[in-house]
Please model this.
Amino acid sequence: METEKQPVPGPERPARELSEEDLLLGKKTVRVIEIMCLAAIAVCAGIAVFVFASVPLDTKLPYNGQFGRNGIPMPIAMLAVFLVLTGLWRATKKPDAHHLSKGARVRVPILGAVLILAFVGAQWAMAHAILVEGGALQA
Model:
């Protein structure tokens, strides 16, 4: 009987060896994503502070969902994007975050920038809706 070698799934699969140059370029790529995340966190924090200062704390983000809620409380709505961006930033701090192949070094900054801009846009849209609901801004 012959024993066939099956491909090893997931984390047990041996990683492709990356050269020293690949690791250095991977560190630069991760650093770019880290800086973009920190800038987005600062922007979102600024938006949240402006909203907190402009409307009453009990203002709700308008939401007509299936569970009959009248809205999402403002502190929770302003915290959601901040938590997602913080998670993305923490992913850049993993010890092996810079182990990126050539293709990943191209894809990661593009996808990262698109995601980060989408998150900041979502924070802006939620802030606008809360400011309108709280009466601080005209629709």
In short: The mean pLDDT is 87. The helical segments are 20-54, 74-91, 102-134.
